[in-house]
Amino acid sequence: MTGKKAQLTVDGIAEPIELPVYEGTTGPAVIDVRSLTNNGFFTFDPGFMSTASCESKITYIDGDEGILLYRGYPIEQLAEKSDYLECCYLLLNGELPNTKQKEEFVKAIRYHTMVHEQIHYFFNGFPRHAHPMSIMVGVVGALSAFYHEALKIESEDHRKTAALRLIAKMPTIAAMCYKYSIGQPFLYPRNDLSFSANFLYMMFGTPCETYLPNPVLVDAMDKIFLLHADHEQNASTSTVRLAGSTGANPYACISSGITALWGPAHGGANEAVLKMLIEIGDESHIEKYITKAKDKDDPFRLMGFGHRVYKNFDPRAKVLRAACQNVLSELGLENDPLLKIAMKLEKIALEDQYFIDRSLYPNVDFYSGIILKAIGIPVNMFTVIFATGRTPGWVAHWNEMISYPFKIGRPRQLYTGATLRDYPG
Ligand code: SDX
To test ligand 1's pocket by mutation, which of 277, 290, 308 has the most ligand atoms within 8 angstroms of CB? Predict the structure, then answer.
């Protein structure tokens, strides 16, 4: 805390209102407006464009510079030198693990990857054509039924076990969603495979033959999980924090995060990007879609472009752009028509004044879908992959909030409805 003050003068109030100013270790300082209610005011900030909802030490974003740090480490370095489970440990604990800590964490995750046998029966209630996200929301929320009695959120040990269970079981449930949709049997996780290799095994293996995933695809999958692991107070993470502030169990809170992530303006954008590229269909049609994206009367937006915080390239998009080309050349798909449309679309948009004026750059979702499609993951599974990758971030923020004294989140409003009136007659 800095001791600095802000002064707010309001017409009709004699004395200026003094408000404390706090500075973080980096990034914008904040003005503490909590005392404004004593003066009969609320702040007004629909969409929370300039509201810091909490103090956090987990992830830092500088949208102007295109910087993303997990516990201070640049995402580019982590993508190059670390792996997904190591980043999970980092996000949860604040420091990179030493060799022993990493071995113990990887082993602990490994021994939580199976789900209760009863969970298998949940799937039978869904139609085979159900969107996998609708199944994910239901099944993850239902994990509460198996654990919430044994869960005291004030216990650090209980919170740690819940964190391990959620990170470990998400890929198993994700793969089950896919297998259910294609009528193939669920595969049990294998303890001899790495986290991401195990996921691809559960997705594409069958009981009929040995399946070992392509190491290049395993690396790409791990990088996608890593790049999606956390992103500060985005809509789904804020949803998890709000749900957690009521004391709800972590499985219910993560299920609420999955629900929020589903929207096409958020985690549903990767699926929407692929559908957009398929709809564009040919490089010759790009100009038409750019025009649609700029037309205020047309609801069409260029999916995978723009970001509430990044007014520069999303650093994750840069890493994924390179990974995308590696994966496609490894698979002999460097002439993939969708990639060519994406690259041309990116070039045209970045040179277009409308996008330049609004600082609209490719975001994490623009390239991830092309990689996922190349790996063989169906489009309706893309947001399920995003949710799986984001789980450590959601859990880390939930745990950070619960670890300190917290109040239930309860915003107020600017009321413009009918004032007091009597019922007629
Ligand atoms: C994610 O918050 C996070 O951190 C999210 C995320 C994470 O890791 O958790 O990074 C993941 O959600 C990435 C974003 C994925 N969404 C998309 O790709 C969907 C397409 N993008 C847009 O819907 C939009 O850019 C948002 C929702 C991402 C951000 O919207 P904002 O910040 O509310 O900005 P806005 O809607 O007020 O747009 C500002 C202007 C508007 O034009 P004007 O009214 O000023 O004339 O830019 C225009 C918008 O019309 N605009 C776009 C556009 N995005 C914004 N125009 C065309 N195409 C777009 N994609």
Answer: 308
